[in-house]
Amino acid sequence: MKFWRLKLSLVLNYIVFAMLLNSVGTVILQVQNNFGVTKGAASVLEAFKDLPIAITSFLIASFVVRIGYKRTMLMGLALVSITCMIMPNVPFFWMTKLLFLSIGVGFAFIKVSVFATLGLVSENEKEHVSFMSFLESFFMVGVLGGYFLFSAFVDSDDPASTSWLKVYYILGAVAFFAFLLLLTTKVDESAVHKDAPEGLTQDFQKMLTLIIKPLVIVFIVSIFFYVLVEQSIMSWLPTFNNQILHLPSKLSIEMASILAGSTAVGRLLAGFVLKKVKWYWVVRVSLVAAAIMVLVGLPLALGSDASGATGWFTAPVAVFIFPLIGLFLAPIYPTINSVMLSRLPLVQHGPMSGLIVVFSALGGTTGSIITGNVFQHFGGNYAFYLALIPITLIMIAIFFFKRMTERETSFTAE
């Protein structure tokens, strides 16, 4: 298979950062137990992760072509590998914040470069959409694996134990292996460099010019609200399972993996469906189904008695239903990202990828902080119902996005 080694490297990079980034829900639960912080205080971990993603992406996206995609990814992997090795030896809340800050910076390097590199390994729009969905499905596989990896180190009998921090030795080692794989993989970036602007000022101007285009504005609104929904649920599901459904800490973390698993399956299936069905209808149907899951699955979970559950087989069936919303949310993000990127020349994939990462990060932070504060002040029973508002806004944005893409089959930032 052409580019198989590079594609494998991109997948592994995504898996590493999926485990690290989406451990924030688990860590939010654990820091409440270990360091005695409130839900509102714990919610800032999302900001320590996402704001560095947004700021770093904005700063590097305009000249990532000049740095080089491979070199940028290597920098991100090296940073998190070192920080993960330090974390277990400094068991304090401030170090947890520093850890997520480094993860955010590292992920900005990775995601901007990965999204931009997709154009180098895809020959047409359908191949781009399909591989984007495939890649994002492996991101969710990493999230799924992360839940079980972290839960293996959590001591439900002693919630105050910091033994779970040892998981970072493993994650640091995996990040280092990903570094070595990429280091020994050839990446031909000549097609991008030959069309690159002449200086950093021109690079930055190119990115800013993209932002003011109506099509890009509507696209940015769509991804902002999508990530707001996804992260608000993903970050607070372990706490919801533990404090609202009264599942043990270890089981709460493990069962949150249902969301990641269903999202991974949804994206794998979408990779095949999108080869046959127009992207717009896949996204519209997915949004409607997600809204139905909130209206039906959430009341079923809240109405069940899970207090006596000690394992997967003793948990009420209703507890499994709401996290299946991931199956329907799954195709939305990679699909609209790919539709947008495939309409740009290769040299602009870096700047556009930067904008995607920036507004995704801002959406994730906003969703998690809003959900955390609603959870604290009004109760977790109501927190996830808020997802209906951004889902509705995404439906409206996607309608206009489709109309604009039909009018502008391709464009540049000129």
Automatic annotation (TrEMBL):
<keyword id="KW-0812">Transmembrane</keyword>
<dbReference type="GO" id="GO:0022857">
    <property type="term" value="F:transmembrane transporter activity"/>
</dbReference>
<feature type="transmembrane region" description="Helical">
    <location>
        <begin position="76"/>
        <end position="94"/>
    </location>
</feature>
<feature type="transmembrane region" description="Helical">
    <location>
        <begin position="313"/>
        <end position="333"/>
    </location>
</feature>
<dbReference type="InterPro" id="IPR020846">
    <property type="entry name" value="MFS_dom"/>
</dbReference>
<feature type="transmembrane region" description="Helical">
    <location>
        <begin position="133"/>
        <end position="154"/>
    </location>
</feature>
<keyword id="KW-1003">Cell membrane</keyword>
<feature type="transmembrane region" description="Helical">
    <location>
        <begin position="354"/>
        <end position="376"/>
    </location>
</feature>
<feature type="domain" description="Major facilitator superfamily (MFS) profile">
    <location>
        <begin position="6"/>
        <end position="406"/>
    </location>
</feature>
<feature type="transmembrane region" description="Helical">
    <location>
        <begin position="255"/>
        <end position="274"/>
    </location>
</feature>
<feature type="transmembrane region" description="Helical">
    <location>
        <begin position="51"/>
        <end position="69"/>
    </location>
</feature>
<dbReference type="InterPro" id="IPR011701">
    <property type="entry name" value="MFS"/>
</dbReference>
<feature type="transmembrane region" description="Helical">
    <location>
        <begin position="12"/>
        <end position="31"/>
    </location>
</feature>
<dbReference type="InterPro" id="IPR050375">
    <property type="entry name" value="MFS_TsgA-like"/>
</dbReference>
<feature type="transmembrane region" description="Helical">
    <location>
        <begin position="382"/>
        <end position="401"/>
    </location>
</feature>
<feature type="transmembrane region" description="Helical">
    <location>
        <begin position="208"/>
        <end position="229"/>
    </location>
</feature>
<feature type="transmembrane region" description="Helical">
    <location>
        <begin position="166"/>
        <end position="187"/>
    </location>
</feature>
<feature type="transmembrane region" description="Helical">
    <location>
        <begin position="100"/>
        <end position="121"/>
    </location>
</feature>
<feature type="transmembrane region" description="Helical">
    <location>
        <begin position="281"/>
        <end position="301"/>
    </location>
</feature>
<dbReference type="InterPro" id="IPR036259">
    <property type="entry name" value="MFS_trans_sf"/>
</dbReference>
<keyword id="KW-0472">Membrane</keyword>
<keyword id="KW-1133">Transmembrane helix</keyword>
<protein>
    <submittedName>
        <fullName>MFS transporter</fullName>
    </submittedName>
</protein>
<dbReference type="Pfam" id="PF07690">
    <property type="entry name" value="MFS_1"/>
</dbReference>
<dbReference type="GO" id="GO:0005886">
    <property type="term" value="C:plasma membrane"/>
</dbReference>
